[in-house]
Design goal:
The chain contains 7 helices and no strands. The protein is an all-alpha fold and 237 residues long.
Length: 237
Amino acid sequence: MNFFSPNHLLGNINKYSNFVFFFGIALLVIGFYFAFFVAPNDYQQGVMVKIMYLHVPAAWLSLGIYSSIAFMSLVYLITKTPVAALISKSLAPIGFIFTSIVLISGVFWGRPMWGVWWVWDARLTSVLLLFFIYLGLILIYRLDGKRNSYFKIAAVYTLLGFINIPIVKYSVEWWNTLHQPASVMRMDGPTIHYSMLYPLIFVFLGFCLISLYLLSQSLKFEILNNKFKSRRIKKKY
């Protein structure tokens, strides 16, 4: 599988990573400009609606990254391709960061809107669980021992944790919650006005590219580190 060739990945990282980074920054600048200076305030939430432009794209990335980790974990378990496991390992801290952003921004939005910093709402609770699932995955990757051993453990753990992803997504439909239902990713189309939708999309795409850049740099480090360790072992024996 050429895509999973370390040399192929390193070549693409060195060639495209800077472009991805700066293009991602440009999209974020455009997105946040429209979010803060063009998009209107909400008639109920007022200026607090601006938190949405950070909170919602981060939530999409949080779920999307974990889904990507689960896919790569499945690829690793089936094909035993080490690079698939390295991609999962590199994605875990990025997903953890976006999940943290979701929780923190949600707390600051919830205080003026709901009158409390936190409620054990189905959506909030399932996202908090995702936060701890990410944290557990990162800790597993830090375990000592044989690489294949903890990669397998991490892959199985990830697939079990994936059960929480549809719970996060559909919690507002399955239970009575304070959290508002989806207004963008709907079967019948978005219900949000385009003046608010476009900034969300720009910020989301910007976050995607920045995440891709962070993944590329982390993956580059992991591949080079593995090559260095392999050379040391060969020299030793």
